[in-house]
Structures are given as C-alpha cells and as structure tokens.
Amino acid sequence: MELEPITHLEKSIAGTVAPVTHLEKVIEQYGGGGGGAVSSVNGKTGAVVLSASDVGASPAETVVEVSGTTPTIEPQANTIYKCGELTSLTISNTQASGAYSIVFTSGNTATETTFPAAILGLEDFAADANTIYEINVLDNRAVIGSWAVSA
To answer: With 70 as the cut, is the pLDDT of residue 39 above it?
Structure first.
C-alpha cells in the first residue's frame, strides 16, 4: 500500500510540505532524542504513557489505541488517539487549552464526522473515502493532514 501526502497546508502555500505528526513536532521543538520508547502502560487497555525523557518534553504524552468503528472521543490534553478504519467519529467536548491528536482511516465509504463548533478549522471538514487523516488540535484550533490510500 502506497501513501501519498495531501495536506491542507500544501493547498494553501507553494512548495512541498512534509506532514509531521504531533509527537514528532514535540520531539523536534524540545530537542528530544530516542525513538518513542514505551515507558509504561497506564492501566487502560491499549493506552501507553510516554515519559518526558522519551520525547524530551514535559508533560508526558499519552497514546490511546481506540477500538471500534464508531467512537465518541472526549479528548484530553497531551493525548494521541489512534483509531483504525472508522465509519463515524464524534468529538464530544472541547478544551480551552491543551493539545491532542486524532489519527484515523476513512475506508471505501467516507467517515461521517461530528465536531463541536468551538474547534476552529473543522467547520467545513468532511472526510473523503480511502484517506488517512491526522487531526491536531491546539487550544481549539485544528490542523488537518491527510494521505490518500492507493493500491
């Protein structure tokens, strides 16, 4: 399977912009090294806590493996939500401050999405079929990266 980057940033500026995940941005910003080693499992099924030394930053970032095809996510700060292929996605609340990321795949049928109106940048968002998405939210402002899935 080949992934082809298609980002909203690329559509709005000239030149090539390589998509970067939230965790990579944190590592780059704080000069952390390492390869995202797992420090501990926090008791939730599938949730992994990375220590500040893993990413060179504080506070620790939590990675949550989301199961199911129709999740409702109540985002928490400093958390990455990794979903599989979704038929629908609902974000049920917003945060006044903090950062979180949601990564999901929209399959042959486009994922239906519901987001709070308070999240700027998602007002007109509609997922396309056969696309991988990464939505990064900081202080209720979203940046969306997407990659078309081709065989």
So the answer is: no
